[in-house]
TrEMBL record, chains A, B:
Keywords: Oxidoreductase. It comes from the Bacteria. The keyword Electron transport does not apply. Gene3D superfamilies: 1.10.1530.10, Hypothetical oxidoreductase yiak, domain 2. This is Lactate dehydrogenase. InterPro entries: Mal/L-sulf/L-lact_DH-like_ah (IPR043144), Mal/L-sulf/L-lact_DH-like_NADP (IPR043143), Mal/L-sulfo/L-lacto_DH-like_sf (IPR036111), Malate/L-lactate_DH-like (IPR003767). Belongs to the LDH2/MDH2 oxidoreductase family.
Length: 341, 341
């Protein structure tokens, strides 16, 4: 039984992933951003968006003509509080990285700003996209749509992506409060992990290709679909995500993405939107915003919620930074295979 | 058995409610706004925020010193995309009405704007607050916190309000797409209706004063609490609502409101935030935003979701505008009693 664990530093892991991205066609700047994004998810224990996702990245990069890893995003200063980004069929992470500073400047000046990214491919953890804004003192919300994977409430056919949204806010004396969630009842990455590990899903998570309830993750992945979380409420939120990521940005709805002529394609050329708010514009004469975020977190802990959003991620991160990011032998073998592929 | 239904026009009902508000201390402009808000909820079949709520309004107005119906909101142009409103312990509806045009002008110019209202009392249907922005071509999101009524995920004590949020977007050829939802698994008003009608709740909705699960709406209302919708996800959204409605605006968290020395008090002097986005800044060269909203609504209907968010409300509204707003004899008796009280 192989259970030997190797601990890599963040830089060691990111360098290794960067080499794989470059080997599969990414220019060095894009490779570096994607590698750091993926390594950060692994560092934070967000395994469904960590090294596990490298298989999808490589498959996606090999799906000829699907994503352009060398695309140069076009960033357009549309109005005092609105940044438009055309990712030009490239990855979302470099598109957002290119727009981040302009978005922050606009939010600082105006109090509120939007970054609207279209024609972009997203495979990362959404929490990592909003966190840097909170580190700059901003409230950030972000939304992504993707490929059809979720049936509407009471519907029979997948229309929505898993359409996550994320929220981040600065917090006094601690790292920012950050959470993200799929608006499906389970993240697609977690269904893939269950399938890989041969675990059944709980009832109420997915349907098969005929729209019948199933607990088999393979049936969900093979033409089936997930249900929205929270019944009609989650479905309404998922609809809102589609509007904010397609209608608003000028891009594709999840249901308009057709990767069928690109075998191996995993991502969707859809969109991402971010809403930024500068809390310093709102606090008036009352105590500092970040201190107030700490107050509500304290109330919630006192009321008995033991694990707050983001707590697990921060604990994993602290451990990873102290002793290294743990990787099993089979994961290292897997990275070897991607380096050789 | 009394089952005679009287049909009132919107104006007839609003006039009648306006008289009750004035009788109980509201100046005529505030009485008119609250009456139209309440009549609109009844017109739209949103009964938990319709005439049923008049009992709460009157009780609240009689709770000496709790809400100031004559307060003049202070509207502050804080930055190019940020409006601060101090409702001065008055109702939220007139505070928002006073800030609406400035918010729309800011969003039109910047692409994005925030309206941050503090020290306000809200008893209306949140959908009615966002709808007028969509009628002006804006995307609007709004959030409200209130009094502690919802336990955090896995917690034992109420910390969150039912903390609803609402979304509205213009839609081609049809009224705006509008929805609101409590982030509790059920709206507080619906628990009150169940209690009044003597109906048991479904399991998984509430806990009693000792934090034990109960299906008795009276026990939920009497020191108990509701659960968040969608388990930890709904709880995270409710936490976000607290941050956007208290930390951001400079007001009270739900858990900081203490009406105990004001018998009859129903509302909370908390806050409300609105995020406005001008979709015309985002559409680029692609088709019109409102048409794209129609597209996604079409996809969702084609996939088998028979009732979209807001459909029921629009159907009720159309019927009410055609034949009048139906009110049972007992409701009219109830209004008589409020007029005499």
């Amino acid at each position: 039984m192989k259970s030997h664990i190797t601990y890599l530093s963040f830089d060691e892991l990111a360098d290794r992933l960067c080499g794989i991205f470059q080997r599969h066609g990414c220019p060095s700047n894009v490779a570096r951003l994607l590698a750091e994004n993926c390594a950060a998810a692994e560092r934070d224990g967000a395994h469904s968006h960590g090294v596990f996702r490298m298989r999808d990245y490589v498959s996606n990069l090999k799906a000829d003509g699907w994503v352009d890893p060398a695309a140069t995003p076009v960033i357009e200063d549309a109005s005092p509080g609105f940044v438009r980004v055309d990712a030009r069929n490239g990855f979302a992470v470099p598109a957002l990285a290119g727009a981040r500073d302009l978005g922050i400047r606009k939010a600082r000046h105006n109090g509120a700003a939007v970054i609207a990214i279209r024609n972009s491919h997203h495979l990362g953890a959404l929490s990592l996209d909003v966190e840097p804004f909170a580190e700059e003192g901003m409230i950030a919300l972000s939304f992504i749509n993707s490929s059809p994977a979720v049936v509407p409430y009471g519907g029979h056919t997948a229309v929505f992506g898993t359409n996550p949204f994320a929220f981040a806010a600065p917090r006094a004396g601690e790292p920012p409060l950050v959470f993200d969630m799929a608006t499906s009842v389970m993240a697609h990455g977690d269904v893939q992990i269950a399938a890989r590990e041969g675990r059944a899903l709980e009832p109420g998570i997915g349907v098969d290709a005929e729209g019948r309830p199933t607990t088999d993750p393979a049936k969900v992945l093979d033409g089936g679909a997930l249900l929205p979380f929270g019944a009609h409420k989650g479905a309404a939120i998922s609809l809102m995500v589609e509007i904010l990521c397609a209608a608003l940005v000028g891009g594709n709805f999840s249901a308009e993405v057709d990767p069928s002529r690109h075998p191996g394609a995993v991502t969707a050329n859809t969109g991402q939107s971010l809403l930024l708010i500068d809390p310093r514009k709102g606090r008036g004469a009352l105590p500092d915003f970040a201190g107030r975020v700490s107050d509500i977190v304290g109330y919630v802990r006192d009321a008995g919620q033991q694990r707050l959003p983001g707590d697990r991620r921060l604990r994993h991160r602290a451990q990873s930074m102290k002793r290294g990011i743990p990787l099993g032998a089979e994961v290292l073998d897997f990275l070897d295979s991607l380096e050789a592929a």
